[in-house]
Amino acid sequence: MTALEEAQLHLSKAREFLDAAEGNRDRKLPNAATSNAIISAINSKDAICLALTGRTNKSDNHGEAVSELRRAGRAGADLSPTLNRLLKLKARSQYAPLSVASSSANKAVEWAQRMFSGAQDVVAGR
Fold first, then answer.
1. Which of 38, 54, 71, 119 could form a disulfide with 47 if both were Cys (CB 3.0 to 4.6 A apart)?
2. pTM of full prediction above 0.85
3. What is the pLDDT of residues 22-61, one digit of tens each?
4. Sequence-distant (≥ 6) Cβ neighbours of residue 38 within 8 angstroms
5. Is 54 left (phi over 0), alpha (psi -120 to 50) or beta?
6. Where residue 66 sits, what CATH number does that domain have?
7. What residues make up the domain containing 82?
8. Based on the structure, what is the number of domains in the chain?
9. Exposure b/e, 80-106, CB count within 10 A at least 16 = b
């Protein structure tokens, strides 16, 4: 499988999780919406990195994911702050006893949409 084919598969997953994030937001499930938005954004990051550099890192260290995206080229650098903001919500949405606020979930979905749109543009340009 080529890097571009793999990027397209990640883009497809990003869309699936973005759809789930939007649906969960609409159902007033802020933790699920935020968590799905984060997974969508990580798949968008993978698609961008694969399309621009031919590889992506599968580390559990999310700081590395932001750095990897930043190094992938201008499109990645432009989106790296968005990914960073999303990843800061991961622990609260998935593990912490306190829930993500609805306003934060709405922002998470918007940020995931921005990541997906950027990934679409990058992959389509290859």
1. 119
2. yes
3. 999 999 999 999 999 999 999 999 999 999 999 998 877 8
4. 86, 87, 89, 90, 93, 108, 112
5. left
6. 1.20.120.330
7. 3-124
8. 1
9. bebbbebbebbebbeeeeeebeeebbb
